[in-house]
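Q: I'm writing up a methods section and want to include an example of the input and output format. Could you take the sequence below and give the corresponding predicted structure tokens, formatted cleanly so I can copy it straight into the document?
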Amino acid sequence: MDPAAEHRQQLRSLRDFLLVYNRMTELCFRHCVCSLNYRLLTGREESCLDSCAARLVRANHRLMGAYVGLVPALLQRRAAEHAAAAGTAAPPAAAEPAPGPAEGAPAAGT
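A: Here is the clean output for your methods example:
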């Protein structure tokens, strides 16, 4: 892979990670933080945030595990569909010759 493509892939991965992190932070904050009257979190809020983040991380790991398990089958099905579509759209490359007189049989008119 060329360096520019690798750099773009790294940027996409970082962007995806930051999107997931921001969503998780917002979701847990809205669920757990009740009052903004104090500078520090209460013990209850900290505990809630810890368990919320842990639940979301575990769910993300399960989803990624399922995704990794399904991707090969999806790619194989997509390749088969593509091959089938390409096969019906274009005539076969090596067509069978038209049937002629059978070998060893006399030709008509001889």
